[in-house]
Specification:
The complex is a heterodimer of chains A (about 350) and B (about 100). By secondary structure, chain A is an alpha+beta fold. Chain A has helices at about 110-130, 155-165, 200-205, 260-270, 280-295, 310-320; strands at about 5-10, 15, 35-40, 55-60, 70-75, 80-85, 90-95, 100-105, 135-140, 145-150, 170, 175-180, 185, 195, 215, 220-225, 235-245, 255, 300, 340. Classes of the chains: A alpha+beta (about 350), B alpha+beta (about 100).
């Protein structure tokens, strides 16, 4: 695209790109980046999936036509993959060298390709590097992170955006890459924006607020986070919240304890792109998540169906995170008790 | 191995799993079928004991010593649990020497 180079640090990886990634702040260049991105520069030599490519994974998300949303091919060359999206956007990934090429059809745009890269492609690369990633958002409250875990549509981004608007620092949106050091777990910073559906924008910012769309083909809106509301550093995890189904119960929102066994199973089910894992990776991840559940308390939180009550929901999280010295040191008296928004 | 389980059987965990302790409970991932299992505190204690080959009678004795449970009831519950673990391929069972009835 051009001769310039742009450097970023995203989810603990040093990234060099030939095109500026939308809404991501550059960082000083490093000598040896983990990933080198080549947008719009798909070498002809790489071509279509070769005869020696195996179908590695086919998305379980199907379009109306029955076609999967994307397919991943594994090439004969060690550590080389190709991802084909339904809209014609394609990525060629060399996990050994960190080179990633991206190309797209005329109906799509660089913004679409960048959005794929910052989400699922980054997730894929991290998983192949053995990094445990939760399908979650994370926010730092008083310097310690809370992760909000749940499937698509459960409110991960809305929660992160709501807490950000109350002055807390966003750590990441959609993918929480975990690292473990001295028995503690850390969430790595991603990029300074949160992607929201238009309804969530209205609930958080009021009717009439217009935010830019991620791309012409993607309805989600980008809420940029100011530098002082984005955590540039990994943050120690203090709590994990499983986002339960929204409820119409008047007492909502509330928080419930989850027994460790249930917490572990829930986390196993909510790691990012876990269908890509082979047996050895799955076994390793199980042990890591076991340590995570022993180190970090896991709660279920239920929001009220009424989007206007997002403030109450965020307030409950703030009280839970800041109301005691350490959530992990909760007395036995607290175990199993529900804490509703009205109580403190 | 398909022999019947009795107090004289020798049981031991296979290698087809990873497990982790969760407080006094435990969870197991069966690597053969990617199924997860949870164990309550007594189950977790049994799982811990079968990490080394032992007779069912030895395990029963540990449980009777550690928990307020009647020996006959304990034996039946233990055999039920071990049968489930064997069905899932998480333990192997071989016949031990008959022991005198207690």
């Amino acid at each position: 695209m051009n001769d310039k180079e742009f450097s970023y640090r995203i989810l603990n990886l040093e990234v060099r790109s030939n095109a500026p990634l939308p809404a991501v702040r550059t960082t000083p260049a490093v000598l040896e980046p983990d990933l080198t991105l080549h947008f719009g520069d798909f070498p002809q030599a790489l071509g279509e999936p070769a005869r020696n490519a195996d179908l590695f994974y086919s998305s379980t998300i199907l379009l109306d036509s029955g076609e999967p949303a994307f397919r991943i091919w594994k090439l004969a060359e060690r550590g080389t993959y190709r991802i084909d999206y339904f809209d014609g956007t394609k990525f060629w990934i060399e996990t050994d060298t960190g080179n990633i090429w991206a190309d797209w059809l005329e109906k799509s745009s660089f913004e679409d390709a960048a959005s794929y890269f910052l989400g699922p492609v980054m997730g894929f690369v991290l998983r192949m590097r053995g990094v445990t990633c939760l399908h979650a958002s994370a926010v730092a409250i008083d310097g310690r992170a809370a992760a909000f875990v749940g499937p698509t549509g459960s409110g991960k981004s809305t929660t992160a955006a709501g807490l950000s608007l109350r002055g807390h620092a966003v750590v990441s949106d959609d993918i929480v890459a975990l690292s473990e050091m001295d028995g503690r777990f850390y969430a790595a910073p991603a990029y300074p924006y949160v992607m929201l559906w238009p309804e969530a924008v209205e609930a958080l910012c009021g009717a009439g607020k217009i935010l830019p769309a991620v791309s012409n083909n993607f309805e989600k809106r980008r809420l940029s986070i100011d530098a002082d509301r984005f955590s540039g550093k990994s943050v120690a995890l203090k709590a994990i919240f499983m986002l339960g189904e929204r409820t119409g119960e008047p007492a909502a929102p509330w928080i419930e304890e989850i027994a460790p066994r249930e917490a572990l199973v829930s986390l196993v089910a909510n790691t990012y792109a876990n269908l890509l894992l082979d047996d050895a990776m799955r076994a390793r991840e199980f042990e890591i998540l076991g340590r995570l559940v022993n180190a970090v308390p896991v709660w279920r939180i239920r929001a009220h169906q009424d989007p206007a009550r997002i403030g109450e929901f965020c307030g409950l999280i703030e009280r839970e995170l800041t109301g005691r010295e350490s959530a992990a040191e909760a007395s036995m008296d607290d175990m199993g008790r529900s804490r509703a928004a009205g109580r403190s | 191995m398909s022999g019947s389980l009795s107090v004289s059987s020798i049981v031991g965990a296979t290698r087809e799993h990873v497990s982790c302790s969760l407080g006094d409970e435990a969870a197991i991932l069966n690597l053969k079928n990617s199924v997860y299992y949870g164990l309550n505190p007594v189950g977790a204690r049994v799982w811990n004991l079968v990490q080394q080959e032992r007779t069912v009678a030895e395990i029963r004795k540990v449980l009777v010593d550690e928990y307020d449970v009647e020996a006959r009831r304990c034996e039946q519950d233990l055999l039920d649990l071990l049968e489930k673990l064997r069905e899932q391929g998480l333990i192997e069972v071989r016949e031990g020497q008959q022991q005198p009835a207690e």
